Model the fold of this input.
Amino acid sequence: MKFNDVPVIIKGPDGKKILVVLGDRNIETHYGVIDPLKIEKLPARHSTSSEIEVLIYLPSYTDFVINMKRGAQIIYPKDVSSILLDGDIWDGAVVLEIGSGSGALTLALVLSVGEAGYVFSVDNNQKNQYRASKTIERFLQHKEIINRNYEFINIEAEDVDISKFNKNISHIITDIPEPWSVVSKFDIKTNIKWISYLPNISQVQLINESLIDHGYTNIYIKEIIEREWRVKGKVVRPEHSLNGHTGFLVYADYLV
Done:
């Protein structure tokens, strides 16, 4: 079997992972050269030109977004999972994402809302959106998901007009430096779940005040710290490094 334009993870004996796309050309890694034409199935154990055995397999969502090429900083999976679950984003949700970035969150939203839902992703950076679009297309292709339930809109956040969307928005998610600047601009006539991702607490204070001033309720704020553990025989210990502060998450409801 020939794998063409398929994203895979190459995992070496040191545990490090590399995300590459299989094609017709040899893949050069610090483990040695890999000939993709010799890969007949996935997952596979493969011996490189340096006779180092690597594991090659299709990436999970986390493998994909952590190792993909990016421009803007991504929202990490630990925060994405909270956005989806605490934000109550399920099949059929219609999400307005303000700040496409590199597309990590956009991809998770597309996977979560399903064919019955939709994702509008707004960003003023066309290059970011092009990269995010290609990222999502590649991941969906290897998962054999063909529904087109999203679109990118290249405008300023302040220029978003909810009344012009052809679907009723159920969620608004922001990943921009000053989300309070757009709260007052939205003429909301249905129940909405608001979620903001922000890197520092002074921004959290400002969005909190703005949400209160504009009638939002059930506001809560959280920060997620993640630490892996290593288990080797009888030795059990936490990893020396942990995935600490990446951002604060602010949740709120607008109830009509």
Summary: The longest strand covers residues 192-198. The mean pLDDT is 92. The chain is about 25% helix and 30% strand. The CA atoms of residues 94 and 166 lie 11 Å apart.
